[in-house]
Design goal:
Elements (H helix, E strand, L loop, with lengths): L2 H16 L15 H50 L3 H16 L5 H12 L6 H4 L14 E14 L4 E23 L6 E26 L2 E4 L4 E3 L18 E2 L5 H17 L2 H4 L14 E13 L2 E11 L6 E13 L2 E9 L1
Antiparallel strand pairs: 1-2, 2-3, 3-4, 3-5, 6-7, 7-8, 8-9, 9-10
């Protein structure tokens, strides 16, 4: 190949190299994201449902709690209303009412005055404003009824009203005209005559008088007609075991001295004034001559740390009637030098 031909070939090659080849473009492959989108949407829906459910439950719980709170508040308010009733004032009001209610005369004028006074104590309504109410009108009264004593027994909360119970003792009297044969004159002049005498029949009763009352702005009214019931017994069969002294019993040389001190102590306790007992005990007390000291029974002395504990039965006696009074006593006794002193004194 000639030089000329080589030069031509080189020029052609240079031109070919100068021609830029088009770059290959990568065709994008689309990924499937539908599952991810669906998962996100369902998660959002379920999350919203969950939050809505929680919100409803919390709302119900809050409402329930609020209702309970309101009930408690209302109950407390009602309780406070009952507690605000001044018992002393109620007792004063009812003591006067009971006298008017229990005391009954057999005279028409006195019965009318009683009816007028009772009206002032009753609630204001059609029932007790009616003068024909049986509370005011007592028919065919033969005898009289007289109150002898009254004592507040119990108070019962009945919601809108309070029930005051009083133990009352009253006497019923009925006077009758009785014909009696009497002998008058002497000797041949004796003769029998019929005279009219008045005999009085008496009957005493002790019952529980139940009086329902209402209270408003410092004032009271009897809400309904009082009624009688039997007085219940308050005595209970309650089991109670006295605690045993869990201490070592003392048998030392001081026992006789303690016994002597106790006898001297109770002689003074029975007769001396309180000021004198201040030298012998922490909390001075005394019978101040009401009883005479007689003796100590069943004395036991124990070691209680630095002190002595003594349990015993102390016998007192009334000087006039000779009636005996026996009391179990527990004492804590300390010793300073040669002197004994009562730190604690309990009727046990």
């Amino acid at each position: 190949m000639s030089i000329k031909d080589k030069l031509k070939k080189n020029k052609v090659v240079d031109k070919i190299e100068q021609i830029e080849r088009p770059k290959k473009e990568k065709s994008p492959v689309r990924k499937d994201t539908s599952k991810r989108t669906a998962f996100f949407i369902w998660s959002l829906i379920l999350g919203m449902l969950f939050l809505a459910t929680i919100s409803v439950l919390l709302s119900l719980n809050t409402r329930s709690t609020l209702n309970e709170t309101n009930k408690l508040v209302q109950a407390n308010e009602d309780k406070e209303v009952i507690e605000e009733i001044p018992v002393e004032s109620a007792n004063e009001f009812l003591s006067n009412f009971i006298k008017e209610y229990i005391n009954v005369s057999n005279e028409s004028e006195a019965l009318q005055e009683r009816a007028n006074r009772l009206k002032e104590y009753m609630v204001f309504n059609d029932t007790f404003n009616d003068e024909k109410n049986s509370l005011y009108n007592l028919d065919n009264v033969n005898g009289t009824r007289q109150l002898e004593s009254l004592n507040l027994f119990h108070i019962e909360d009945e919601g809108e009203r309070s029930l005051f119970q009083y133990k009352v003792t009253f006497k019923n009297e009925l006077q009758r005209e009785v014909e009696k044969e009497v002998v008058k004159g002497e000797g041949k002049n004796k003769k029998k005559e019929i005279e009219i005498e008045i005999e009085t029949e008496e009957e005493k009763n002790t019952l529980l008088l139940n009086i329902p009352i209402v209270y408003e702005k410092g004032l009271f009214s009897v809400q309904s007609v009082p009624y009688f019931t039997e007085v219940p017994s308050l005595a209970g069969n309650i089991e109670y075991e006295k605690k045993e002294v869990d201490l070592e019993e003392y048998t030392g040389n001081e026992k006789e001295n303690i016994n002597e001190f106790l006898n001297t102590f109770f002689e003074k306790y029975a007769t001396e004034p309180v000021d004198e007992m201040a030298y012998l005990m922490d909390d001075p007390q005394t019978l101040n001559g009401s009883f005479l000291f007689e003796e100590i029974r069943n004395l036991k002395i124990y070691v209680d740390g630095k002190h002595y504990k003594a349990t015993m039965e102390v016998v007192f006696r009334d000087e006039l009637t000779n009636i005996q009074q026996v009391n179990p006593v527990e004492m804590t006794i300390s010793k300073t030098g040669r002197n004994y002193y009562v730190k604690n004194f309990i009727y046990n």
